[in-house]
Amino acid sequence: MSKVTFRERARYWFDNTMSKGTASLIGWLAVVSVGLIVVVAGLTLWVAPEEPEGVGHAGEVLWITLMHALTPSKVASDKGSMAYMTVMFAGSLGGLFIVSMLVGLLSNGLKQKVDRLRRGRSRIVESGHTVILGWSDQMFTIVTELAKAQASQKGTVIAVLAERDKLEMEEDIREHVGDLGRTRLVCRTGRPTEPRDLALMNLASARSVVVLSPESEDSDAHVIKILLALAKRQGVHPPVVAGLASSRNIAAARLAGGQDVHLVDSDDTASRLIVQSSRQSGMSVVCMDLLNFDGGEIYLRTPKKLVGVTYGDALHAYQTASAIGLRRPTGVVLNPPMDTVINADDEVIVIAHDDSHVRLAAGKPSLDEAAIVVAGKRATEPERTLLLNWNGRAEQIIRYLDGYVAPGSVLEVAADHPKAGTSLAGLRNLTVNVKDCDTTDRFALESLGVGLFQHVIVLSDDRFDPHHSDTRTLMTLLQLRDMQSTLGEHYSIVSEMHDENNRALAEVTEADDIVISDTVIGLLLAQLAENRHLADVFAYLFDSRGSEIYPRPAGDYVRPGTTVSFSTVVESARRRHETAIGYRDAERRNDPPHYGIVLNPDKAEPLVLGERDSVIVLAER
């Protein structure tokens, strides 16, 4: 190999300095400028030592040369010999080149800086902010709910990092969410899996971090990679909440993020809510009210005055809040035995419309003993359920349903999906039959004998994109509702959809429950980002073990048509070892947005419950 020459080394060094950016280029331009000024000044002193007139020393010549280099037009006003004019013209010509280069470099450097700011590549300096990593349709729900939760606080910030243009993210969020009130939105463009990009978010000062599962074939792998990047960071680690699409990846995500990461299993949560809603009409509305920041919210309180009091007595302790359980050192328990004594290290779990409403009541409740009904528990009987369409969580839904129903129950699966009815071995209580059916076809639906079923579940078909799948679901719901009207049949209908914007359209079908899976997961992530201690509470609510939310006939608690206070309803439920948290007005069951559901009413509020109304309770099955 030939030896590297001095010329090659010099050129290599020069190329490296030129590649260092705008500052290096300006530095070289300054060197050239100094050289030009010195050369021109020297030539002037040599060829025209007496010019220009009135100049006494070399410093003045340097100054005149500098002015000609920076302002080439000055040569037009020069006077003197031909030699002097030639040298000044050459200096002005060189200056014209240098000034043009300088303007171009500054313009390009400024443009690069503006583009960098536009892309959102500067490090944020906020503290106590909520960071959202990744992008999905859940983004709009989370930002909306966080803005509501922080509406009373000044200077709150939501910071978003995703692989999208900064301005596009801000425009999309403002278009879908609207006014954020006092909450400021800060977006940055970058990869949440890259430590360098994570450093832009000032995570050490963040209040909490939400990791979203993107809409892609390998979304959970992306979430796990983000959790690995967060775990490997140096410094303070804020609480992290992450959403996963599949239950199969929970163990891997737990290993990647550590025990302090709260994982939300999207498939599992949506499946449980669909099953519970199919059996208890209004369940999805109750859960949405508890998950959002509009109505009743869940709080944890440690009231010293309730230490030593039983849980049953604590049900009447709040006037404008409803106790639903205890958070103990051993874990969360909702609707514990009524004789459970509240200890000093326990926290009471309550539902209230606002934090300021969680106050102890003055005096004892006013009860109407004559209105309280003593009713026995209803025996469970075999049920018939119709499942329309099929998707990836259908198997999980059927297995959860199998744990709820009485032995001898029947499930009919009607779908034209190639995987419909597969992998269902080991069911204990359900007998499953599968039929090939186009669920948007009226005649195909009528051939199923829908009137023979008590419950109908309409799933979103995962063979189509979310928009098309929701359109097909709407078609099925319209057919079912028309069949009910024409044939005089009645059965509960719960449907699964993707887009929250389609809820208003689905309300025309008067479906009993509409589960928007992305919205539910977004609400849950927002709740946990605000208060990580609620993770166990919501996990208990969605679990089939222990107490669950049930709308039950009001006539089992108080005499129909009698004016009573809600305290009387609470007392009647307490004697049945249940916790009453609200009621449903049957006359308003089709009126959005609450569909007749009233959670946490004032306990002194007078109300009249009829035969068709329901009391919403936490109870064992």
UniProtKB/TrEMBL annotation:
The protein's name in its UniProt record: Potassium transporter TrkA
Keywords carried by this UniProt record: Ion channel, Ion transport, Membrane, Transmembrane, Transmembrane helix, Transport
Occurrences of domain RCK C-terminal (ranges): 283-366
InterPro entries noted in UniProt: CASTOR/POLLUX/SYM8-like (IPR044849), CASTOR/POLLUX/SYM8_dom (IPR010420), NAD(P)-bd_dom_sf (IPR036291), RCK_C (IPR006037)
Localization annotation: Endomembrane system
Membrane-protein topology: Multi-pass membrane protein
Pfam families in the record: Castor_Poll_mid (PF06241)
Entry's transmembrane regions: 21-48, 83-106
Domain of life: Bacteria
Record's keyword annotation contains Transmembrane helix: yes
Signal peptide positions on this chain: none
